[in-house]
Design goal:
Layout lengths: L4 H4 L2 H4 L13 E2 L11 H13 L11 H11 L5 E6 L2 H12 L6 E5 L3 H9 L4 E5 L8 H11 L3 E5 L11 H10 L3 E5 L3 H4 L13 E6 L1 H5 L5 E6 H8 L9 H12 L3 H22 L4 E2 L6 E5 L3 H10 L2 E2 L1 E2 L10 E5 L3 H16 L1
Helix pairs in contact: 3-12, 4-12, 5-6, 7-8, 13-15, 14-15
The protein binds pyridoxal-5'-phosphate (PLP).
């Protein structure tokens, strides 16, 4: 008898839904928090020459010292803090979930938040505990501390700013969670470039704290580079689970040269922040729309018929993200990535047309 997936694949894996990536060909693409701006032509020329000369027949340098040095400088990593690089921060989340798993050790996160925390924990075989935010998307500290006490999680993920709600949680409340946690707390700063706030300076004060960043939302989503930062005694253990050549040669070359190239990514982030302000202002003038403030490069907003609005936008060539149905606190919510001024205007026009249709 040939074996079926039911015989072979773990129940919790078969129960997962694949992370959906819709086809965006020809669309105004505002669904995935990408930076809409290309790199300057001169920098692209430099990248082309580096790629031309790259030793693609060789394995990449597994420790990537040049790239780590630049990341240290650009991120302002405090002395004594070690770095672990990942093929995107998604891979680092996976490494963490695989590492901490003792029989029964839970992974804890808030809800709604980044869906990969739950997906990856589940795939790694760790029970996932989700603690609801308050209705205003702030941390429910009593509930959170209660869950920490009850489940004693080995790993807690907090996105700062949070995705998909866009807000920064109160730093003092996060500190209380770190102090109460019996295991590691990972502050996921994927949107740091648009927020300015960071837990990096607190690494020295909290021995169980790790801070994670990514270049994806800053403009390099295509090369996949995530960075986990923390005390050497944690990083050394996690490094054993990292696949030896997880950050490929081209990613290492390109990230290093782009980070070295003046302030191109931070200038683009500044332009995105300006547009975020305009987009929020305009959204708030649209009747029947509630738009939430954001410290990230996207805006969460609520309408009265999310599915109709999402479909109407799509038919008008604008792809955003519908969160309706994913969590009680996201009923009728949609999320739009901040694009170029033209893209944002196209979105606003399509939104008004759809609302009035
Ligand atoms: C987008 C996102 C990531 C994933 O980043 P990659 O480095 O592209 O894997 C991680 N965390 C949060 C909160 C995100 O929104």
């Amino acid at each position: 008898m040939p074996k079926t997936p039911e015989d072979v694949i773990r129940d919790e894996v078969r129960a997962l839904k694949a992370y959906p990536v819709p086809d965006a060909t020809g669309m105004v693409k505002l669904d995935a928090m990408e930076n809409p701006y290309p790199l300057p032509p001169e920098l692209r020329g430099r990248i082309a020459r580096l790629v031309e000369q790259a030793a693609l027949n060789r394995y990449p340098d597994p420790s990537a010292p040049a790239l780590k040095e630049r990341l240290r400088r650009v991120f302002g990593v405090p002395d004594g803090v070690e770095l672990l690089l990942g093929n995107g921060s998604d891979e680092l989340i996976q490494t963490l979930a695989l590492a901490i798993r003792k029989p029964g050790a839970a992974v804890l996160g808030v809800e709604p938040s980044f869906v990969m925390f739950r997906m990856i924990a589940t795939a790694a075989g760790a029970p996932y505990v989700g603690v609801d935010l308050r209705d205003d998307y702030s941390l429910d500290i009593e509930k959170l501390l209660g869950a920490v006490e009850q489940h004693r999680p080995g790993l807690i993920f907090i996105a700062y700013p949070n995705n998909p709600t866009g807000n920064l949680f109160d730093a003092g409340l996060i500190e209380r969670v770190i102090e109460a946690a019996p295991g590691l707390v990972v502050i996921d700063e994927a949107y740091h470039g648009f927020a300015g706030q960071s837990f990096l300076p607190r690494l020295a004060a909290y021995p169980n704290l790790l801070v994670m960043r990514t270049l994806s939302k800053l403009g390099l989503a295509g090369i996949r580079l995530g960075v986990l930062m923390g005390a050497e005694r944690w990083i050394r253990q996690l490094d054993k689970l990292r696949l030896p050549y997880n950050v490929n040669t081209l990613t290492q070359l390109i990230a290093a040269v782009v980070l070295e190239y003046g302030s191109v990514l931070t200038d683009q982030a500044a332009a995105i922040k300006l547009e975020r302000g305009r987009l929020l202002g305009e959204l708030r003038r649209v009747p029947r729309v509630t738009a939430y403030p954001s410290d990230a490069n996207f805006i969460l907003f609520r309408v009265s018929e999310a599915e109709r609005i999402f479909d109407g936008l799509k038919r008008r060539g604008v792809l955003i993200k519908s969160l309706h149905g994913s969590h009680r606190l996201l009923a009728d919510c949609l999320r739009v990535t901040v694009g170029t001024p033209d893209e944002n205007t196209a979105f606003l026009t399509a939104l008004t047309q759809t609302l009035n249709a």
